[in-house]
């Protein structure tokens, strides 16, 4: 993960009013400059516009499923109309029946399109006559993209009990997201549990014990770890870590949630470290010096005074690390094994939400049900990381203000 | 505990640094002998997976192309946003807070979401719109497909916060006295910014650009749906061409190789080049930033 920006910790709010603002007040800019300044203002809104567009365009594709308007069963019950009815159709009805885009529909004449539709109906009628004696499958009447089937277990034909099944490539597409959510949760939990002690320990060391010169080396070095691309960490997990951990733990499957979690932990260490270190360094020197003055050891001052004072920062670091781990894709795609089977064991091959999107989006029908479910998963990832960001941000801002006012 | 505690924290720090060293060392040891001039300048004429023959030049070219295009898009937007935030925006204004918040949140959006966004917005909406407008009636999509431009645009949105944050840091380090002197001499605000403030923060803008390039160069996920390809027979020549890419190629070598053990040298060579590229970019940024913060004159 190369989130260099996360290491550059968000800028603390600048002083209430920069001094040069007053100097320039009252000066009338020249007309040309006025225009340029309006332009600067307009461009500065890019970030807001982009955030809005991201929500709109990722959410838009998932909307039919979110609102429960998509129906996979309806598509399978095929209508057949007699030729006279096809002749009476308006162009827009015809286009809808053929399921063509506006551009493709315009490519051929109306008569040709009608002939094509009649042919389709003739083939369908033929298929219906042949398939009349086939056993009807009750699954084909199920709307597999309904909320009920996305979340709750269902007893599909051939299964002995209700189960959570993610099986988007099959006759009856099954889109139960629970196995993926559990997969993501397992990997993320391992990552946070692995990264937290290390990152927090390093943050304590750098902010409380290290000499200034040592600190000037260690901080950039940990930033460098953030500069390692996630595909390289994934590669490392796949070829080195998996083999090493397998020889220690003797896994059933070589790639599993545990391996991916450890690699993911390495990726979020710099994120947790940066925030925790910032919070710990923001604790006023007076706190620690006061503790030392009344006879506390340096460890007692660090652990008993500085850490509790910076506690919200540590919390924010964990929340942000959690959000990052949940959204990370490449590492889990390469190291978690990718079996979409519901299991709570850390040592089973698991598939996460993000890996599912990355692996499957390339092969779906544009605008189809599978496509929309993947966008729904994307919306979920976006929402969770947005909330994680919001929480971490709010907590850090309050902490900065509090520590700044008490120093 | 008062002895053990500090030792434990030092140990944790050491472990983290050891991980970095381990990754670097392992990749360097296994990849060093592979990275020859022939490897760097060779193409994929004899297939992607022929050890000793296949090179990574097309991938380097693709990565360079998408990164340069991205830089052209993101630097102006990022620098102007930072200028607005630091030089114009009322510090307590609601809109200022929103812009800051948006920049912050953009940094936290997962890369997979940027992939979906690139597909849904740039290809599915902007590209399709361009096709309808510029080439009505054409059956083959031209802009509404994966390509260099949309991959770069997606990456530009992703790296915008990096540029904004670094530039703002540099703008804030420009001494207030310089601005005041310029304004006192009768320069307008815009003249002050263009002639005095921006030249003084060039190194910060450079840091931001380098960090953005470093981040984008190693990123694979947004490219999965917006333009990278397993194999293209020629170098990208226009904005809507698909391209091969260095980071994407690491993934290809990891997962698509017909015989993973046999093609391992290629993989290690490619990883070493990618890692060397991204880490040296990061290192340069770190050094420049250390220079800026050490400069005593730059404290307002």
Please give a quick description of this structure.
The complex is a heterodimer of chains A (407) and B (300). With 407 residues, chain A is mainly α.
Distance between the termini of chain B: 43 Å
What's the Cα radius of gyration of chain B?
A: 23 Å
Q: Main sheet of chain A, how many strands, which sense, barrel?
A: 2 strands, antiparallel
Indicate the low-confidence ranges of chain A by residue numbers: 1-11
* Estimated radius of gyration of chain A: 29 Å
**Beta-strand share of residues of chain B:** under 5%
Portion in beta strands of chain A: under 5%
Question: Major β-sheet of chain B, in short?
Answer: none
- Secondary-structure element order of chain B, N to C: HHHHHHHHHHHH
Shape of chain B: globular
Structural class determined from secondary elements of chain B: mainly alpha
Going by CATH, the homologous superfamily of the domain at 178-406 in chain A would be MetI-like
* Helix/strand structural class of chain A: mainly alpha
Largest interface: A-B, 113 and 112 residues
Count of DSSP H/I helices of chain B: 12
The number of distinct β-strands of chain A equals 2
User: What's the helical proportion of residues of chain A?
Assistant: 55-70%
Structure overview:
The complex is a heterodimer of chains A (407) and B (300). In chain A, a hairpin with a 6-residue loop joins strand 1 and strand 2 (174-175). Among the domains of chain A are: 78-132, no CATH class; 178-406, MetI-like fold (Orthogonal Bundle), CATH 1.10.3720. With 407 residues, chain A is mostly helical. Chain A has helices at 4-7, 20-24, 31-44, 46-66, 72-76, 83-88, 91-98, 102-106, 110-131, 147-151, 178-209, 212-227, 230-249, 257-282, 285-293, 298-309, 311-327, 330-335, 353-360, 369-406; strands at residues 166-167, 174-175. In chain A, helix 11 (178-209) runs parallel beside helix 14, helix 12 packs antiparallel against helix 14 (257-282) and helix 13 (230-249) crosses helix 14 (257-282). Chain B has a single domain, classed as MetI-like fold (Orthogonal Bundle). Chain B has twelve helices and no strands. Chain B has helices at 4-31, 37-41, 57-88, 94-108, 111-134, 148-172, 176-184, 189-200, 202-217, 221-224, 246-255, 264-294. In chain B, helix 3 crosses helix 6, helix 3 (57-88) crosses helix 9 and helix 4 (94-108) packs across helix 6. In chain B, 52% of the residues are buried. The interface between A and B is large, with 113 and 112 residues.
């Amino acid at each position: 993960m190369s989130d260099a920006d996360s290491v550059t910790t968000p800028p603390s709010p600048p002083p209430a009013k920069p001094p040069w603002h007053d100097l320039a007040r009252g000066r009338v800019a020249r007309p040309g400059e006025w225009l340029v300044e309006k332009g600067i203002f307009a461009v500065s809104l890019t970030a807001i516009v982009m955030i809005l567009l991201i929500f709109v365009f990722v959410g838009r594709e998932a909307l039919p499923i979110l609102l429960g308007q998509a129906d996979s069963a309806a598509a399978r019950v095929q209508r057949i109309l007699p030729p006279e009815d096809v002749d009476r159709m308006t162009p827009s009805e015809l286009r809808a029946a053929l399921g063509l885009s506006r551009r493709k529909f315009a490519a051929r004449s109306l008569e040709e399109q009608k002939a094509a539709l009649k042919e389709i109906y003739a083939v369908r009628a033929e298929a219906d006559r042949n398939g009349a004696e086939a056993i009807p499958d009750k699954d084909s009447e199920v709307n597999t993209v309904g909320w009920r089937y996305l979340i709750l277990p269902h007893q599909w034909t051939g299964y002995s009990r209700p189960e959570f099944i993610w099986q988007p490539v099959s006759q009856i597409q099954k889109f139960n997201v629970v196995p993926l959510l559990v997969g993501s949760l397992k990997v993320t939990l391992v990552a946070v549990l692995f990264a937290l002690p290390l990152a927090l320990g390093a943050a304590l060391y750098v902010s409380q014990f290290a000499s200034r010169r040592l600190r000037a080396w260690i901080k950039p070095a940990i930033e460098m770890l953030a500069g390692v691309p996630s595909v390289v960490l994934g590669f490392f997990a796949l070829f080195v870590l998996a083999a090493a951990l397998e020889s220690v733990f003797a896994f059933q499957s070589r790639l599993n949630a545990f391996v991916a979690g450890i690699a993911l932990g390495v990726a979020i260490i710099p994120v947790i470290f940066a925030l925790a270190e910032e919070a710990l360094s923001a604790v006023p020197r007076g706190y620690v010096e006061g503790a030392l003055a009344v006879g506390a050891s340096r460890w007692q001052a660090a652990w008993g005074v500085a850490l509790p004072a910076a506690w919200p920062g540590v919390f924010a670091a964990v929340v942000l690390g959690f959000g990052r781990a949940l959204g990370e894709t490449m590492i889990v795609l390469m190291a978690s094994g990718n079996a979409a089977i519901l299991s709570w064991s850390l040592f089973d091959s698991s598939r996460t939400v993000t890996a599912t999107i990355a692996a499957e989006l390339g092969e779906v029908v544009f605008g189809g049900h599978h496509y929309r479910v993947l966008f729904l998963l994307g919306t979920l990832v976006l929402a969770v990381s947005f909330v994680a960001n919001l929480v971490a941000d709010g907590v850090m801002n309050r902490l900065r203000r509090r520590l700044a006012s008490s120093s | 505990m008062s002895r053990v505690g500090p030792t434990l924290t030092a140990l944790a720090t050491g472990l983290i640094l050891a991980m970095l060293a381990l990754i670097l060392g392992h990749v360097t040891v296994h990849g060093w002998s592979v990275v020859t001039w022939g490897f760097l300048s060779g193409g994929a004429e004899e297939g992607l997976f022929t050890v000793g023959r296949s090179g990574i030049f097309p991938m380097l070219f693709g990565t360079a192309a998408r990164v340069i295009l991205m830089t052209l898009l993101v630097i102006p937007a990022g620098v102007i946003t930072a200028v607005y935030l630091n030089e114009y925006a009322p510090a307590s204004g609601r809109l200022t807070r929103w812009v800051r918040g948006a920049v912050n949140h953009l940094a936290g959006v997962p890369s997979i979401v940027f992939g979906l966004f690139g597909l849904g917005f740039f290809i599915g909406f902007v590209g399709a719109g361009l096709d309808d407008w510029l080439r009505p009636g054409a059956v083959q999509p031209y802009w509404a497909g994966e390509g260099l431009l949309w991959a770069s645009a997606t990456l530009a949105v992703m790296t915008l916060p990096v540029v904004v944050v670094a530039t703002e840091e540099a703008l804030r380090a420009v001494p207030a006295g310089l601005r005041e002197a310029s304004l006192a001499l009768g320069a307008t605000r815009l003249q002050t910014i263009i002639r005095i403030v921006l030249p003084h923060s060039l190194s910060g803008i450079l840091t931001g650009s380098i960090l953005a390039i470093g981040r984008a160069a190693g990123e694979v996920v947004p490219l999965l749906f917006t333009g990278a390809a397993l194999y293209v027979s020629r170098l990208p020549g226009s904005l809507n061409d698909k391209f091969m890419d260095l980071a994407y190629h690491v993934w290809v070598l990891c997962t698509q190789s017909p015989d993973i053990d046999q093609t391992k040298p290629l993989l290690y060579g490619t990883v070493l080049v990618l890692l060397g590229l991204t880490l040296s970019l990061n290192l340069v940024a770190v050094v420049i930033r250390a220079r800026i913060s050490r400069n005593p004159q730059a404290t307002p």
